From TrEMBL:
Gene3D superfamilies according to UniProt: P-loop containing nucleotide triphosphate hydrolases
PANTHER family: DISEASE RESISTANCE PROTEIN RPS2-LIKE (PTHR33463:SF209), NB-ARC DOMAIN-CONTAINING PROTEIN-RELATED (PTHR33463)
Transcription keyword on record: no
GO molecular function, one term: ADP binding
Keyword presence, Nucleotide-binding: no
Species annotation: Sesamum latifolium
Keyword terms of this UniProt record: Plant defense
Name listed for the protein in its UniProt record: Disease resistance protein
Top-level lineage group: Eukaryota
UniProt cross-references to InterPro entries, sorted A to Z: NB-ARC, P-loop_NTPase, Plant_NBS-LRR
Domain NB-ARC: residue ranges: 3-126
């Protein structure tokens, strides 16, 4: 955990991945990171999202991830087009000074830009931590 916390404090790191076999403690690690950083002032918002090992890059699955992120942001997304939802989520995250997005139980690639998550180069205060099994 100390290594993850050190890496998250570095300015030159915007995205980290934590991976390994099932049962080695990845979820416990990111849960502890979430608990330590939530409300600490290190990030304006910390979001821990469990994606699921059944995630596939379909519109309905993308909407599920969008809804989970939006719920953490207290943002209501319309049931309109994916482009509208993505744009609204992106705009809302850009309003945050800093944010940490923890994606847990990721088994397949997720195109974060299709969800509405700003690229770290676009949002300098954003960081993504991905707990995955097979990347």
């Amino acid at each position: 955990m100390a290594n993850v916390m050190d890496v998250l404090r570095r300015e030159d790191v915007q995205r980290i991945g934590i991976w390994g076999m099932g049962g080695v403690g990845k979820t416990t690690l990111v849960q502890n990171v979430n608990n330590k950083l939530s409300g600490s002032g290190s990030f304006s918002i910390v979001m821990w999202i469990t994606v699921s090992n059944r995630y596939q890059e379909t519109e309905s699955e993308l909407k599920k991830v969008q809804n989970l992120v939006a719920r953490r942001l207290k943002l209501e997304l319309p049931e309109e087009s994916m482009e509208t939802r993505t744009s609204q989520l992106h705009a809302r995250l850009m309003m945050e000074k800093t944010f940490l997005l923890i994606l847990d139980d990721v088994w397949n690639p997720i195109e974060l830009d299709r969800v509405g998550i700003p690229e770290p180069q676009v949002h300098r205060g954003g960081k993504n931590t991905i707990d995955n099994k097979i990347f």
